Amino acid sequence: MLACTELITMCLQSAKHEHLRKQQELDLNQNPGTALFQDIFRRADKNDDGKLSLEEFQSYFTDGILTDAQMQEMYYSVDRQQTDNLDIDVLSEYFTPHLGEYVNVMSALEKLNVAILRAMDKTKEEI
């Protein structure tokens, strides 16, 4: 038998998954090619406030290629008002023009992702 906290956790995770799936579908319809981009930024947002601090940005995107100073320079080139909290939509708007032809690839991946999530939800209903 599930403990009360386990049941609550499962419900919260299910609700969050459903919310993210609906958000992806909305993003897909409004801005094809950018929903996966926004999803990446949402994953970097560890405190779920819809914004990335410099620490969240560096923690998630540091890859050993760019130095800390270069990462900080990139962050502040987007955060022109130096708020130290980059809105996920602002980040997406900043980087989207640099996608070029990859916007079509991203759009195809988004459609595939939504189809997979729908299939998983359908499978979950049948179990």
TrEMBL record:
UniProt keyword annotation of Metal-binding present: yes
UniProt-listed InterPro entries: EF-hand-dom_pair (IPR011992), EF_Hand_1_Ca_BS (IPR018247), EF_hand_dom (IPR002048), NECAB1/2/3 (IPR039862)
Matching Pfam families: EF-hand_5
Top-level taxon: Eukaryota
Alphabetically ordered keywords of this record: Calcium, Metal-binding
Residue ranges annotated for the EF-hand domain, each copy included: 32-67
MF GO annotations: calcium ion binding
Name assigned to this protein: EF-hand domain-containing protein
UniProt source species: Oryzias latipes (Japanese rice fish)
